[in-house]
UniProtKB/TrEMBL annotation:
A molecular-function term among this protein's GO annotations: ATP binding
SMART domains: AAA
UniProt keyword Transport, yes or no: yes
Function in brief: Part of the ABC transporter complex HmuTUV involved in hemin import. Responsible for energy coupling to the transport system.
InterPro entries: AAA+_ATPase, ABC_transporter-like_ATP-bd, ABC_transporter-like_CS, P-loop_NTPase
Name of the protein: ABC transporter ATP-binding protein
Keywords: ATP-binding, Cell membrane, Membrane, Nucleotide-binding, Translocase, Transport
Source organism per UniProt: Curvibacter microcysteis
Domain ABC transporter: from-to ranges: 12-245
Length: 274
């Protein structure tokens, strides 16, 4: 039987993490140990604090408490080394519309390049591999502003992949992606994990989140549960945190979350009534 938590090294560890937004506490003393070489999904209702937690883990947000990346406090890593080890894909990221797709992906190589140094062959190879992986290679000469929402998301994903970091944090990476590209993303994540990378993603699609090795369930700025996706305790916690408005079923060797419909009086009024 598989034991959980797995006895492995940690990619990221948070201790006593608190964060405020707009003067309001949003994260409340979060302790979290995220194992290396696994894919962890962070799931919870709207406003639970998932994005805030991810941003705090990436040190993109002022916070109290400590975060360690590969056993060393974030603040103690030289910026460049940290940038090589921790890649980030944010939610609805803004990037300059006039930048070419190639140049956006090349931004992922900045932590690997010397000050004002031109990209070398390794940078070119990493960018090409990332753009091909997200099937954005054919648009490399187009500007970001000429792309649809999903195409743009694939370029931003390529930028994160081009870093070739051992740890990847992704907030809503599936936003705007059609089903084939969601499936491609899944394949990419599985491949990265097989190669020893750590992936931590915030996902709204619970069925997709259940494909991960582990799931962190959040509500109201706290971690309610952290366990293997296949564990019954994890799945019951997910059903609970969404007020039993979804039910998790086994289907063809995968876990799927289906909506639970309850009869309720509609807030929509029939304009022809009366
Ligand atoms: N700039 C801000 N100022 C004040 N409060 C904020 C700000 N940004 C977010 N919040 C609040 O912080 C809480 C956590 O937000 P966060 O975006 O981390 O939640 P989330 O779990 O990622 O939500 P969602 O599933 O809707 O993306 C929410 O209650 C939200 O209203």
């Amino acid at each position: 039987m598989n034991r959980w938590p797995p006895t492995t090294t940690l990619a990221l560890q948070a201790r006593g993490l608190n964060a405020d937004l707009g003067g309001r506490p949003v994260l409340h003393g979060i302790d979290l140990a995220l194992p290396a070489g696994r894919w962890t999904s962070i799931v919870g209702p709207n406003g639970a604090g998932k994005s805030t937690l991810l941003r705090a883990l990436a040190d993109l947000l002022p916070h109290q408490g400590t975060v360690e990346l590969q056993g060393r406090r974030l603040a103690d890593w030289p910026a460049r080394e940290r940038g090589q080890r921790l890649a980030w894909l944010g939610q609805s990221e803004h990037a300059a519309d006039d930048l070419l797709v190639w140049d956006v992906a090349m931004l992922g190589r900045l932590p690997h390049r010397g000050w004002l140094a031109a990209p070398d062959a390794r940078d070119h190879a990493a960018v090409e591999q990332a753009l091909r992986c997200t099937q954005a290679w054919d648009w490399r000469h187009r500007s970001l502003g000429q792309l649809s929402g999903g195409e743009r998301q694939r370029v931003l994903l390529a930028r994160a992949l081009a870093v070739q970091a051992p740890v990847l944090l992704m907030d809503e990476p599936l936003a705007n992606l059609d089903p084939p590209h969601q499936a491609d993303w899944l394949t990419t994540v599985r491949t990265l994990v097989r190669l020893g990378h750590t992936v931590i993603s915030v996902l709204h699609e619970v069925s997709m989140a259940l494909q991960a090795d582990d799931v962190v369930v959040m509500a109201a700025g706290r971690v309610l549960h952290h366990g293997a996706a296949a564990q019954p305790e994890t799945q019951r916690c997910l059903e609970r945190v969404f007020d039993h408005r979804l039910a998790i079923h086994a289907l063809q060797g995968q876990w799927v979350a289906l909506p639970v419909l309850t009869p309720f009086e509609s807030h929509l009024r029939d304009p022809h009534a009366d």
